[in-house]
C-alpha cells in the first residue's frame, strides 16, 4: 500500500507531518479520495466509542473506498494481532450502540466461588459464557458439550487463558447429551453444581424446520431432562438461553424454544428448591449461521449477496454483550421469570447488506446502477421465517436494577398440563410422527402459527410415491 494522507479530528495535529505525510481534516477526505484516487481507508481509532465509530464509518459509506480497521496497540503488544492484520469493519461498529458497563455485583452473584455448569459449552453463546464465567472466579466450571471437537477447542482455549492469568480453577470437560437424564444428573451431583446455564440447542430456523423430530428432542425434551436433573441435584439456579423467535412463533425452532420456556415455568410451580428462569434475546453477531459472515463471504466472491426479503428486519447484539447480560440477569432470578434483553432498534437487513458492500469498496448493481459491482438477490422468506421478530408476549413487563434487562411474567399452564403434553410429545417423537409432533407444539404454544405444509425432509421423502422401473427381460 502507498500512504498518501493522514486524517485526524484533532485540530492540533492538522497541518503537521508524519514521515513526510500531511495530517489533514476529515472535511478534506472526499477531495483527497478524488485527487489521489484513494482505494483504501484504514481506521485507527480504538479509543472511539462505538457510536462515534458508527458515525465515522457512515460518513465513508458512499465514498467508494474499501474501509478496514487496524489492530490497536494492546492487541499488537500482547501478540493477539500483527501490525499488518487488517480487518473488515465490524458490524457492531455499524450498529453504533455502546454496550452498558456490567454491574459487578450482578455479574458474579451466581458464579464466584461456586460450581458452575454450561451445556452447549462449545457453541457460540456457550463458549462466550465460559470465557466470561472464568473471569468471575468460580470454584469449578463444568463444560458439557456433545461435539468432541467443540469441547476440545473451548477446553484448550480456557486452559490457556487460565495459565496466562495464573488463576487456579478446576475445569471439567465432559462429553454429554442433555437428553441423557442419568448422565446429566450424575454430573450435577458429582460436581456439586450450583448454577447451570443451558445453552445447548438447535437454533437454525430452516434446518430445524426440516428436522422436526430432532429439533423437538433437543430443544424441548432435553431442556426438560436437564431441568429435572437440576432439581434432583438441588441446583440453586437454572438458566435457559432462549430467543426472540419464541414469541408468536411461525417456525418449529421458535415454537420449541417457547415450549421449553413453558416447561420451566410449569416446573417452577411444582417446586421451590431450584430457581428456573429464561433469558430471551435476538440475533447475535458472528454466531454460527449469522448473516454477517455470510455477507462477507459473498462480497469476497463478487456476489450476489442474498437477502431473503427487502423488508426483513432483525435485532442484533454482540456475543460478548449478550453473554454478559445473561450472567447478570440470572443473578436477579426469583423463579419462573423471562428476562428480556434490550436489543436496541431492529436493523433492516437489506440496508445492512448495502452498507457492507459499500464499505468493501464496491457498489450495488441494480436498476438504478446497472454498471455496479455486486448485485443483491432476494431469495424469498424461507419456511417459517418472519419479516419482524418480537421480544415480549403480552405486556406484563417490569424493569430491573439493570437498564438493559426487563423482567416479564408470562402465562404458563400447570405442571400437570405441561407434563401430559410432554408425555404425548415423547410418544409422537418415538413414533417419528412429524404431523402429530407439530400439532402438539401448536397445542402447547397457543401463539404458534405453523404453515400448512410440513417441511421435514424425512417426512417428505416417506410421503413421496415410490416409482420403480421393471427390468427389461427381453433376451
Quick structural gist:
Helix content is 39%, strand content 18%. It is built from 17 helices and 22 strands. Helix 6 (124-134) packs across helix 13 (319-330) and helix 10 packs parallel to helix 11.
Characterization of the model:
With 475 residues, this protein is α/β, with parallel strands linked by helices. The chain has two domains: 6-95, NAD(P)-binding Rossmann-like Domain (Rossmann fold, 3-Layer(aba) Sandwich); 104-293 and 316-355 and 389-408, 3-Layer(aba) Sandwich (Rossmann fold), CATH 3.40.50.720. The chain is built from 17 helices and 22 strands. The chain has helices at 29-36, 50-60, 73-78, 91-95, 104-107, 124-134, 148-165, 181-190, 205-210, 212-232, 252-270, 291-300, 319-330, 349-359, 415-430, 434-444, 457-463, and strands at 6-7, 17-18, 21-24, 40-43, 66-69, 87-88, 115-119, 140-145, 170-175, 195-198, 237-243, 275-281, 283-285, 305-307, 313-314, 316-318, 338-341, 347-348, 364-365, 374-378, 397-399, 405-408. The strands form six sheets. A nine-stranded mixed beta sheet has the order 9-8-7-10-11-12-17-22-21, with helices on both faces. Strands 1-3-2 form a three-stranded mixed beta sheet, with no helix packed on it. α11 links the parallel β11 (237-243) and β12 (275-281). α11 (252-270) packs across α16 (434-444). The protein is globular and about 75 Å long.
Amino acid at each position: 500500500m502507498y500512504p498518501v494522507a493522514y486524517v485526524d479530528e484533532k485540530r492540533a495535529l492538522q497541518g503537521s507531518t508524519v514521515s513526510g505525510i500531511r495530517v489533514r481534516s476529515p472535511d478534506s477526505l472526499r477531495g483527497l479520495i478524488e485527487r489521489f484516487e484513494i482505494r483504501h481507508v484504514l481506521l485507527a481509532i480504538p479509543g472511539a466509542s462505538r457510536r462515534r465509530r458508527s458515525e465515522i464509518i457512515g460518513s465513508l459509506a458512499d465514498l467508494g473506498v474499501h474501509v478496514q480497521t487496524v489492530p490497536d496497540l494492546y492487541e499488537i503488544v500482547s501478540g493477539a494481532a500483527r501490525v499488518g492484520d487488517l480487518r473488515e469493519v465490524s458490524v457492531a461498529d455499524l450498529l453504533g450502540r455502546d454496550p452498558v458497563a456490567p454491574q459487578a455485583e450482578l455479574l458474579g452473584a451466581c458464579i464466584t466461588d461456586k460450581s458452575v455448569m454450561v451445556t452447549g459449552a462449545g457453541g457460540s453463546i456457550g463458549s462466550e459464557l465460559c470465557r466470561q464465567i472464568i473471569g468471575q472466579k468460580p470454584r469449578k466450571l463444568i463444560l458439557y458439550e456433545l461435539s468432541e471437537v467443540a469441547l476440545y477447542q473451548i477446553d484448550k482455549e480456557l486452559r490457556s487463558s487460565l495459565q496466562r492469568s495464573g488463576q487456579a480453577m478446576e475445569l471439567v470437560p465432559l462429553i454429554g447429551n442433555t437428553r441423557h437424564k442419568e448422565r446429566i444428573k450424575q454430573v450435577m451431583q458429582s460436581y456439586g453444581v450450583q448454577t447451570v446455564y443451558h445453552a445447548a440447542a438447535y437454533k437454525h430456523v430452516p434446518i430445524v424446520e426440516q428436522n422436526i423430530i430432532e429439533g423437538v428432542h433437543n430443544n424441548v425434551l432435553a431442556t426438560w431432562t436437564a431441568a429435572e436433573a437440576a432439581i434432583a441435584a438441588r441446583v440453586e439456579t437454572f438458566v435457559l438461553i432462549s430467543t426472540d423467535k419464541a414469541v408468536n412463533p411461525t417456525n418449529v425452532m421458535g415454537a420449541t424454544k417457547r415450549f421449553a420456556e413453558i416447561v420451566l415455568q410449569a416446573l417452577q410451580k411444582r417446586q421451590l428448591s431450584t430457581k428456573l428462569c429464561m433469558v430471551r434475546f435476538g440475533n447475535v453477531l458472528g454466531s454460527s449461521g449469522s448473516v454477517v459472515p455470510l455477507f462477507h463471504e459473498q462480497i469476497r466472491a463478487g456476489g450476489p449477496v442474498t437477502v431473503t426479503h427487502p423488508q426483513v428486519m432483525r435485532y442484533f447484539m454482540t456475543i460478548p454483550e449478550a453473554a454478559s447480560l445473561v450472567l447478570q440477569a440470572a443473578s436477579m432470578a426469583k423463579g419462573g421469570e423471562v428476562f428480556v434483553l434490550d436489543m436496541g432498534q431492529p436493523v433492516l437487513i437489506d440496508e445492512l447488506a448495502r452498507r457492507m458492500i459499500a464499505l468493501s469498496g464496491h457498489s450495488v448493481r441494480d436498476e438504478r446502477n446497472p454498471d455496479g459491482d455486486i448485485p443483491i438477490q432476494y431469495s424469498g422468506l424461507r419456511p417459517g421465517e418472519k419479516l419482524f421478530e418480537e421480544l415480549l408476549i403480552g405486556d406484563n413487563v417490569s424493569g430491573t436494577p439493570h437498564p438493559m434487562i426487563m423482567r416479564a411474567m408470562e402465562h404458563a399452564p400447570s405442571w400437570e398440563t405441561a407434563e401430559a403434553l410432554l408425555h404425548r410429545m415423547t410418544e409422537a417423537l418415538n413414533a417419528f410422527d412429524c404431523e402429530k409432533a407439530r400439532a402438539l407444539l401448536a397445542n402447547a404454544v397457543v401463539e404458534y402459527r405453523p404453515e400448512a405444509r410440513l417441511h421435514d425432509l424425512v417426512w417428505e421423502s416417506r410421503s413421496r410415491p415410490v416409482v420403480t422401473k421393471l427390468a427389461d427381460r427381453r433376451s
